Amino acid sequence: MTTIADHFIPARAPFSAVVKAGQVMRIIDLESQQAVDALFYNAHDFSERYSAQDTLAAQAAAGKTFYLETNAILLSNESRPMMTLIADTCGYHDTCAGACSCESNTVRFGHETRFMHSCRENFLAELGRLGMGKRDLVSNVNFFMNVPIRPNGELTVDDGVSEPGGYVELRAEMDVLVLISNCPQVNNPCNGFKPTPIRIVVTG
User: Fold this and answer.
1) What pTM was computed for the model?
2) Are 39 and 123 in contact (CB under 8 A)?
């Protein structure tokens, strides 16, 4: 396949790009244990966007877990396939824990963390560039993020399991606008307490 784009995304930074139907996006965790938050929109109609609820319902109907693994299909709020996870060195990815925000930092880690940078801020910055806003924030995928569920049903964030150079590949099933937040979180171990750069390569 031909390389169409090759992007280096610094630690803590946002990014967005359109991945056309049939193209493959590889997200590479360059140094290990780096969570990558992602939002997905129909590139021609932003009102159609990724739905964690529809995706997880389809996985449950197929007898799969709530983690996103190889062959998982990311569905839109119109129940249409947006992207298919076609290759993965990590083993599973989260779509339940949401994106970190100033508000969640305050609740979880104390008032002194309120003004720390967050994925929600990254998403809002990219959405603003594209003419969207807070109402367009939707459920996201947390690639490389280790979110086990305790026996009592609580979600926890544990050390990431991806290794240096680990990657996930997604094939676009429609023209998809992808928004990325290279997670800046330093208060839990999703980034090994040290956010690092990633690389995104699009081929087709």
Assistant:
1) 0.92
2) yes
